[in-house]
Amino acid sequence: MRDVKEKPKRAIAAAVQLPEVSDIEFESSLTELHQLAKTLGFDVTGRFAQKRVKFDQTAYFGTGKREELRVLAEDADIVLVDHEISPSQARNLEKEVGCEVMDRTMVILEIFHRHARSRAARAQVEIARLGYMAPRMREAAKLAGPQGRGRSGVGGRGASESRTELDRRKIRDRISELEKELSAMGAERKTQRARRQERPGLARVALVGYTNAGKSTLMRALTGSEALVADKLFATLDTTVRALHPESVPRVLVSDTVGFIKNLPHGLVASFKSTLDEALEASLVLHVVDASDPGFERQLAVTDDVLAEIGAKDVPRILVFNKIDRGGDEAALRARYPGCVVISARREGGIAALRGAILAFFQRDLVEAELFLPWSTQQLRGEIFLNCQVLEERAGNEGAFFRVRGERNAVQRLREQLGPAPRGRSVC
Ligand SMILES: Nc1nc2c(ncn2[C@@H]2O[C@H](COP(=O)(O)OP(=O)(O)O)[C@@H](O)[C@H]2O)c(=O)[nH]1
Ligand SMILES: [Mg+2]
Q1: Cα distances (Å, whole numbers) of residue 266 to 64, 108, 373
Q2: Separation CA 222–CA 254 (nearest Å)
Q3: In sequence order, what are the beta bridge partners of 203?
Q4: Residue 220 CB less than 6 A away from ligand 1
Q5: Residue 211: which region, alpha, beta or left (left: phi > 0; alpha: psi -120 to 50)?
Q6: Where are the alpha helices (DSSP H) in 224-377?
């Protein structure tokens, strides 16, 4: 039943709609939860909503609705709740519905946890997780009882509570330890960044933008990485970095980043920012915006602000309006955001345009050169193709001439390996 590796967990996205929340806002938040759940690899099989004046104190949904949810959830493994709920609400809901309950904050924490790579990002996410867990420990202990097992929760409360107290102290200690580590890392990170900027070296692109903008879809289309389907982003970064395909000169690495979230719980802002540090490593950021989303302008502004806050303000950026097949005014976008790329991941021409924009950026510093490869050293032919874009190849009496485009250093190195061309034919 819970064989996570084999079968995706079946989830139901559920929420209470309060009177001050419009239908549009409500739907959009629930859709976002659905999308976040897909990112975690869940199969969202149903949605469930209740209009209510306030959240039920005991179990978030009202009594009658809990029964309805129980029936709906019979085939599900997990119920996802689109708000942060209290530990006791979660526990009571779990008991009544009969399956695991995960709230919005937990879903997001789990995504950050999977995306966090740098030491600082990991520490930041762990702090957020511990902060979230601490009040939940007491609830867990109440359930566990003196043996630390079972669900009856009767008796032995004193023992379990003192153990919980101990656990909570451990959590507090761990948080302060992590905070110390983080501040020590601050200085180290600055020097690392400075070092990185000194050696521009690798051509790296990061896709940045809101959840559902189409980052993973574009990533897949640009890199041909079929395994990385949007819905199933079990993302350690290694699997979210892929080379542009077909390969280019220079070789460009594309990475997917953790998506911005419209309704990001306040307590998770810091950990979100640190998981985004992938964007700092990039020499080019593709800021992907869903052109068909009526709220895109605000999202665009938030993304810009956050990139500035994490220190990625000066990383060159291409604004990519995606999903133009679903809506949006292409001409107006082009006029308003000069230099933007307007595409649809669903249309072939779109990906070619984006690829063109990426390559134009990385190839701006390439040099054109002519290389001569004597017939006697044909084994170096592969080297030329590996390091340069070959514009033309023609045979001479003593060897082959190549007109190539490549990075200055790479061309220089090849020329040293190949030796001089006959009758001074080599020009740069
Ligand atoms: N109509 C349309 N749908 C798209 C386009 N690009 C992506 N999508 C869909 O939008 C959803 C979210 O895409 P995904 O790549 O997972 O977004 P991410 O959260 O930014 O990684 C998926 O259902 C995609 O199939 C597009 O250009 N047009
Ligand atoms: Mg994605």
Answers
A1: 31, 12, 62
A2: 8
A3: 252
A4: no
A5: beta
A6: 237-240, 269-275, 278-281, 296-309, 330-336, 348-362
Quick check: CB of 328 below 6 Å from ligand 1?
no
Question: What distance in Å separates the CA atoms of residue 279 and residue 273, rounded to the nearest whole number?
Answer: 10
Nearest ligand to the CA of 215 is: 1
The tokens for 162 are 């003192």
pLDDT at 172 over 60: yes
Which residue has 């669903």 as its token pair? 346
Q: Does the beta carbon of 325 sit less than 6 angstroms from any atom of ligand 1? A: yes
Quote the CA–CA distance of 22 and 332 in Å, as a whole number.
28
How many Å lie between the centroid of ligand 2 and the Cα of residue 209?
A: 9
Question: Which of 212, 289, 344 most suits a substitution to test ligand 1, by most atoms within 8 Å of the C-beta?
Answer: 212
pLDDT at 426: 46
Name the more confident of 5 and 154.
5
DSSP codes, 6-57: TSPPEEEEEEEEPTTS-HHHHHHHHHHHHHHHHHTT-EEEEEEEEE-SS-BT
pTM (whole model) above 0.85: no
28 CB neighbour count, 10 Å cutoff: 17
Closest CA to 101 of 122, 120, 87, 115: 87
Q: Is the CB of 215 under 6 A from ligand 1?
A: yes
- What stretches of 155-245 show up as alpha helix (H) in DSSP? 157-198, 215-223, 237-240
Q: Which of 71, 49, 75 is nearest to 60 (CA)?
A: 49
Tens of pLDDT along 366-410? 899 999 999 988 888 988 988 888 999 999 888 999 999 888 888
State which residues have CB under 5 angstroms from ligand 2, the bound ion. Answer: 215-216
Q: What is the pLDDT of residues 97-109, one digit of tens each?
A: 999 999 999 999 9
Single out the residue of 373, 364, 348, 356 nearest to residue 426, CA to CA: 373
Give the number of whichever ligand sits closest to the CA of residue 345: 1
Closest by alpha carbon to 100, among 14, 5, 7?
14
